[in-house]
Amino acid sequence: MPADLYKARPHAALNRNLDHNWQQALLKTSSERRIAVDIELGGWEEQLILTMTCEDGISVTHTLDGMFDVATNPEKALNNLKDGVAKLGQTLYYARNIDVKLADALFVPNSLLNQFRRETADMLDAARLAQYTRGSRKAETVPAPVYPDTHLSFLANVYNHKARAFYHRHGVQLIDAAYEAHEEKGRCPGDDHQTLSALRL
């Protein structure tokens, strides 16, 4: 035990130099926002059909033509297909549900499956963007709400004409210039605090 620990008193806060759980927590992404996608893969030996539907209900369907043989190992081929369409790591999406609707498990080269998935995800990006509607700004209240004070001192820090116009629009009649405007002579923002401190002494 380090000698300094013998000086520690009850209830003293101790900081550890190495905390594996803490280090692992720091490595995790804490604010990642991803969109759930339901994936359906169907088709037959001459064509694959991939459908992606995001959590907002927007759906796209993409096809891949080719000659896809029935796999000699159906279980392995089915797992490869599921894994292949679910790899959405570099996109905004994550696979929530995967449904493979093929009469037979087909062998599809990974390169083709990866390109097929990427193109479908790009189509979903475009479809979501096309349906995006920018929110409208709430109309300003008429008449404008009234500010509770009719006089603002330099402490309100009204420095430019736009700020001054804003307060006038909301009922303020007298507005002192901000301290930065150097129109208050012999007075500093901390004067009131310093005076109060002096009185307490």
TrEMBL record:
Domain Peptidase U32 collagenase: 15-129
Entry superkingdom: Bacteria
Listed name of the protein: Peptidase U32
Origin species: Enterobacter cancerogenus
